[in-house]
Amino acid sequence: MLELKNIYFQAADRDILHDVSLQIADNRFVVITGPNGSGKTTLARLIMGIEKPSQGQIIFNGQDITDLGITERARLGLSFAFQQPVRFKGLTVTDLISLAAGTDKKLSTAEVCEYLSEVGLCARDYVNREVDGKLSGGELKRIEIAGLLARGDQTKLAVFDEPEAGIDLWSFNNLIEVFTNLRTQSAASIIVISHQERILAITDELIVLSGGQIASQGKRETILPQLINIDYKYSCKGGARND
Amino acid sequence: MTKQLDGITRNLLTAVADLHDTPSGAYNLRLNGQSGGRRSTTNIQITTKEDKPGIDVHIKPGTVNESVHIPVVLSESGLTETVYNDFYIGEGADVIIVAGCGIHNGGADKAEHDGLHRFFVGRGARVRYIEKHYGEGDGSGQRIMNPHTVAELAPDSYLEMETVQIKGVDSTIRRTDAILQNGATLVVKEKIMTHGNQLAETHFNVEMNGAGAACSVSSRSVAAGQSQQIFCSNIVGNAPCNGHSECDGIIMDSAKISAIPEIVANHLDASLIHEAAIGKIAGEQILKLQTLGLTEAEAEAQIISGFLK
Ligand SMILES: Nc1ncnc2c1ncn2[C@@H]1O[C@H](COP(=O)(O)OP(=O)(O)O)[C@@H](O)[C@H]1O
Ligand SMILES: [Mg+2]
Q1: Which CATH number does A2-234 carry?
Q2: For residues B104 and B137, is the Cβ–Cβ distance under 8 A?
Q3: I need a labelling partner for A137 at 20 to 30 A (CA). Which of A162, B30, B114, B304 fits?
Q4: What distance in Å separates the CA atoms of residue B246 and residue B44, rounded to the nearest whole number?
Q5: Distance (Å, rounded) from C-alpha B37 to C-alpha B73?
Q6: The predicted structure's pLDDT at residue A230
Q7: Residue B133: is it exposed, middle or buried by C-beta count within 10 angstroms (0-12/13-18/19+)?
Q8: What is the pLDDT of residue A120?
Q9: Residues of chain A with pLDDT under 70
Q10: Are B35 and B65 in contact (CB under 8 A)?
């Protein structure tokens, strides 16, 4: 179980996150949504240890991980798919997926292909490509997700930051399938940051973040109908960024 | 090989030429300034130069799928040599030439290998030239290599040069001069990693004199410690041609890299491009690999080895 207790995050002299508390129970599928600039990515980066909270505690399976680094959290079972995947000159898709799988030796082409086809990439065209600027945004995004899938059982809790961004409609069906599979087959808890209706539709729980605070939180059936009002109220007043 | 090779020599040979034993095909091993073995084949003749140290390699026209290995090994401190090797590649040949220099310096004196390699690539011939530099040994003596390559490419010929120098060499100044006639193509891929107080300087001068000539020079380098690297390229287009040079550098610690590109178009239809990017490893790259469970040091090592692969 992941628990955030009274988390604050300050940057540029303001609260990016303000007193955020939440719990993600084991084996849950939770979507975090909210307007641009509401602090979703910041929250994800705090969970993974990329940023440290100014105040508050993060507890993972009973252990206080607030002061742990990224590597240690990864080894405890936290996984994170970046909103903006990182590009690497020289590392190939196979290199990256192999590192994610955490085996000492490189994965075989067949193994890499399996992960790539799950995210709808015609695998053989990609295994030896470098994860660099020559790949399109959507391709990078799908490789990022494949990397998280390759972590397999190492993952106890996965955070996907806007996985749908840049992914075309055709591949989108694939993506929904990836998440429905994860939801039913994986023992890990899944947090997906998303605006996408079809992802919202498959979630158990919904957390709405707005202006750095939790605006509402609960079962999908209860929260979904209120969403439009929340968005309106906060995106006008909260100084949200357009991106 | 004809002489019994000791452990150090074997290691150096593996490092510079991936050789564990006598190569198949033509070869010439230079060992501490002397011949360490040679084989010519029907199509590839290796002969000793009369007037100065070095060899002439004659490859008959039409020779395909053959290779020449010419490794150089220096394992004695205090040895300084300059070697002149000439390669005559006949028309229509398609061959691989593997050169490489390994220095093991366990002493206090410098060990230096300077070489002038000249390639005369015949009409329509294709050559892949691979050159690795490797230094080792814990003596205080410097390990120095200064290779100078001259290439003359006849019409429609193709020369690809891959040069690799990963650590171990204290000082190197590499010079490559190439002249391309019509339809000739030169591809250079350079990889360098320096550390400590090492210095590496490379100069590429390419003249494209014939219509349809093309060249691509790319350098990927990592400079760590207090090492210094200088990359100079000068690509001249005197005819309708395409030229591209690219320098991509990663700096670490307090190292320095400078890239000094020059492209000169003397013809309206010469199209020349230079790209250069130098910077430290992007922080996000390290973070990403850490989220996969790697430590910061492991992440750095992966990023660098991928970059130089
Ligand atoms: N390190 C930082 N320094 C300054 N501002 C930041 C920093 N991190 C995030 N922000 C700001 O915090 C707000 C929330 O950002 P983010 O978490 O990326 O939002 P979301 O993912 O919901 O779109 C934005 O206005 C962003 O510019
Ligand atoms: Mg975001």
Answers
A1: 3.40.50.300
A2: yes
A3: B304
A4: 34
A5: 12
A6: 57
A7: buried
A8: 85
A9: 170, 228-243
A10: no
Distance CA A74, CA A80 (A): 9
B292: tokens are 């996969």
Buried b (16+ CB within 10 A) or exposed e, B199-229: bbbbbbbbbbbbebbbbbbbbbbbbbeebbb
How far is Cα A39 from Cα A44, in angstroms, rounded to an integer? 9
- Do residues B215 and B185 make contact, with C-beta atoms less than 8 angstroms apart? yes
Chains A and B: how many Cβ contacts under 8 Å? 57
Domain ranges in chain B are 1-166, 170-283
Find, among A157, A151, A162, A154, the residue nearest to A192 by Cα. A162
pLDDT at residue B100 in the model: 85
Query: Strands A157-161 and A78-81: what pairing?
Result: parallel
Per residue in B44-68, pLDDT (tens digit) is 999 999 999 999 999 999 999 999 9
What CA–CA distances, in Å, run from B11 to B5, B24, B135, B164? Answer: 10, 19, 11, 17
Task: State whether the beta carbon of A194 lies less than 6 angstroms from ligand 1.
Answer: no
Single-letter code of the amino acid located at B255? A
Nearest CA to ligand 1 atom 5: A11
ipTM for the complex shown = 0.92
Note the ligand closest to the C-alpha atom of A16: 1
Rounded to whole angstroms, how far apart are CA atoms A103 and A94? Answer: 12
Per-residue pLDDT, A74: 98
Residue A227 backbone dihedrals phi, psi, to 5 degrees: -55, -45
Report yes or no on whether pTM surpasses 0.95.
Answer: no
Q: Which atom number of ligand 1 is nearest to the Cα of residue A51?
A: 1
Q: Are B247 and B259 in contact, with CB atoms under 8 Å apart? A: yes
Q: Does A82 touch chain B (CB under 8 A)?
A: yes
Do the Cβ atoms of A50 and B291 come within 8 Å? Answer: yes
Write down the pLDDT at residue A233.
Answer: 46
Contacts of B117 (CB under 8 A, 6+ apart): B85, B86, B87, B99, B147, B148, B149, B150
Place of tokens 């906060």: A234
Q: Which two tokens stand for residue B190?
A: 């350079």
Distance, in Å, from the CA atom of A115 to the CA atom of A94, rounded to the nearest integer, reads 10
Shortest-distance ligand to the CA of residue A33: 1
Neighbours of A13 (CB within 10 A): 5
Angle at B143 between CA B139 and CA B149, to 5 degrees: 165
Task: Please give the DSSP secondary-structure letter assigned to residue A130.
Answer: B
- Confidence at residue A39, expressed as pLDDT on a 0 to 100 scale: 97
Q: Which of B282, B292, B306 sits opposite A74 (nearest CB)?
A: B292
Which residues of chain B are modeled with pLDDT < 70? 1-4, 19-22
Roughly what angle, to the nearest 10 degrees, separates helices A137-150 and A93-101? Answer: 30
| pLDDT score of A68 | 97
